[in-house]
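Researcher: Please generate the 3D structure of the following complex. Treat every line as part of one assembly.
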Amino acid sequence: MLQGILISAAAPLGASLLTACGSGTPGQPAGGGNSSGRKVINFWSQQFEDWQSAWEKKHVAAFNASQSKYKVELSIVPADAWAQKLKAAQAAGNGPDVYTISYGNIGSAVSTGSLVPLNGLIKSQYLDDIDPSIAKFVSAKSTPSSSLKQYAYPWLVEPSTVMFYRKDLFQAAGLDPDKPPTRWDQLPDIAAKLKKGSVYGLGTASVAADLSWSSWGLQQNAAEHYPVKTDWSSADPTITPYAKLAEFYSSLYNSGGMPKQALSAYADGTPLGQGKLAMQITGSWFIGLLRQQFPKLESKIAAAPMVSIDGDQTRPTATLGGWTLAIDAKSKTQDGAADFITYLLASGQSVMMDYFKASGWSKYAARTSIVKAIDADSAAQADPFRKIITDKIVKYGVPEATYPIDLSTDFATAIEKSMKGTSANQALATAKQQMNQYITSNKLAGTNTQASVQSGS
Amino acid sequence: MAMKERSSVRVPRVIVGVFFGLAALFPLAWMALSGFKLNSDVLATPFSFFPPSWHVENYVQILVDPDFSRAMMITFAGAAIFTIFSIAINSMAAYVFARLDFSFKRTLWVIVIGTMFIPNMAILLTSFIVVTKLHMLDTMLVLILPPLASAAQVFFIRQFYLNIPIALEEAALLDGAGRWRIFTRIFLPLSQPAFVVVGVTSFMAYWNSYVWPIMTITSPNLYVVGQYLANFRVSRGPELGLLMAGSMLAALPVIILVLIFQRKIIGNIKIAGLK
Amino acid sequence: MTGAVTGSTGRGMTELPRQAGVASAVPARRGSRKIAGRRRHRDNLIAYLMLAPVVILLIIFVIIPLISAGYLSFFNWSFYRASEYVGFRNFVNVLQSPDFLASIGRGLLFATMVVPTVMILAFLFANIARGLGGRIAGFVKTSIYIPTIISGVIVAIVFTIIYDYSGGVLNWFLGLFGIQPIAWLADPSIALPALAVPEVWMMFGLTALIMLAGVLDIPDSYYEAAALDGAGWFKQMTYITIPSLKNVILYLLIANFTASLQEINLPLLMTQGGPLNATLLPNLYLFNHFTQDTYQGQPIAGALLLFIVLGAISASIFAVLNSEKAVDG
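Model: Done. Output below.
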């Protein structure tokens, strides 16, 4: 109580000083506001590429024109301001009705009661259209005893681990550009072979912040599960598959083919585009960057699934990241929000096809009907990357880890240590201790709302 | 100061001195130079020191970028307001402590000076809580009000005022002039040297701020220049030529300010009191 | 007087009170004491009115947050959840926390790399530049001062490209001598020294100018007398220059030590504390915990401990310098 007094003592003093000379956030009407007879739906989208924002604006306008009951107001929020802004707006009671949320954040949003289940709001035929494996990404149980519901509607998926390489540099090094490596132990040598002069052979994550999420695919590739148990009760990163993973990264880093200081963040494929790397492991979104910034290079670039621990390419190598739309639990226009989501993502084909076409087929569909439509589209068929990524990477893709990122960062720190000189076993043992300490002090056990749809230890 | 030296001693001094100067300027020169390069040339391999082709349009392009120019203007406006009010209230307090006698003067002085020693980090979180409860987040106010009162500035201006001869006010006091009039009629006109220093310092502090803005400002249209650049690095990372040009332009206002007032500032580093 | 100029947070001025206030101190003269007691009441109203803005603002934005921080440090406190009283446990935990202690150690290491370098360079500069006159002096003084006023964000941005592995000018320059590229920001043993360079660069200007002013204050006659007695430059430096600068050196040591210990912009923007926490300096450690943790009683306690240490150092030096001034009149 005293703390309340201390803090609120400032308020009456401060109130008199407040002259509203601030240009605050452009007034977001609280959900349920009226705009010329229509109910306002606040739609917050995180900021993506320009073409995505353009697509959003276009179809928001189309939705607004197609009916007279609701008016959607779009706000595009930069990624780094997102969390803070959302929290602040929700605390103030004028948060969005509909917003973008990534697959990995759905579980925790459900556990804090932030999202409304879509099962009653969106027609089941549309929910059924979601690809079954991706449907799991958006499903959760709000309490261990409730039934499984879907809390967000998928918009797209994109694999976070694709091996892009320069066919011409492969050839120059005496490698067959049509036969990229398939096994872990093949990659270090190839990276070394490809290094020539100022061009490095391979680029991938080498710092904990990047490794924390970009190594998920390889974690699954090695162990077929994540180091943290599905019920979040404990973690064991010291098992052999993860030790092999750490050693794999170390062999790449020390192969002589990788720059010792990353030339860019993991997600940024610019070095490959600029010709500083012969190969780069990054997400499928690189295709968009390639076409936009380095169009002349496109014909020289090929894509392949990431190397697999034993060469078996039906093992997962990539996690499927991506975005969804969800409805805020405090929204006063849930029906309208659901209508909007149905219009934009869930029903028909034209809106979604427009999106994937605008993406240059570099994003991948989460709805079975759309996947089929894209397959049948002649322009899509002609795309050099789409088929290989859809058939060989997305097909075997796995969900991202949904436990708190600190755990993944601890694991990634162990990998970075292994790359930079510590023994893998020692580093992973430290990680085990840190991860379990985090789990205990944050009381994570039993709090995974998606435990029932996640497989693994 | 004007020691006569043999030229054989003087020339090396000049060389070394100029070397220091150039070394100090090199990173900035590098930044300005890189601003003339194509985005892909800034960190290109093979390396080229000078731009293979000079692109003045980087500077133009970033200037006309609405987000950049807005950040520059709004930061400038905020800095100007901040500077003016900072000088105003801190000089008033300085005058009061320098010349007036009043109950609890000693206590208040100790309290004010005491705040000088509180590191920002100690109160970062709790002052964030305070401004949240006051609903100041995401407004200009949150960047201006909290840092406005500065014990250090009060201290500095007070030192300056203590040096103003009492004789100047005694005549006025005898004539029955009030303290406020003495302040505005006598002290303020004489305050220019101190105000130049304090003003430039305030402007710079606001212009260069980063940690507080990133915690309290989330709307892109209110970003200060530092936030804009940091954000640009993340969201438009590959556009390095633009980033360098923008950074150079963002550094210019404070550089210009210092160049204008350089004699007053640099010349005034008096430390007689430290002997 | 040019204090409060290096990498500022939004509360620039109070960040570097040491430089701001003391560097420009002109001998104090307390003249108004002779006014009779009756005056006190006449002054009260106007005094309080003129003092109000500063005092009110300091109370709201500095004092209340400080008291609040002190209070909250005894709780397991969270912005959004209920908190419980835990007594001194936060302080105990923080003092035993290997991460916190490691960041303090790093801060001290960083300060040890930065401060002596700056002081020596500044001293060298001051002794060399004292003989310069006119235009050259102006150019040199202004040039070295400019890095001091550049925003920490911009410094971070430009040094990040200087330190780039394959395309950075530094590795290129070293390559001219056949040296292999160095991972300045990715090698855990090099990253912290790599950050010390921009820190020195930013700190040098003001320190050198203050030192120069101090050196210029030493009467030529001292040196002439010493030269007549046969003392060479080394003896002159040791017996005249350095002792005369004692207070200046002391002041600069403390100001720069506390400033470098509190550096946050560089690690935040260049390495995010990495690689492997090699550049996780104390303020960045605290900042990360403030912005990420659910329970923040512990980082608050950590910040207060840091404050006590830094505050004690600053306040004691301030007192020493002030009392000495009083002695000199």
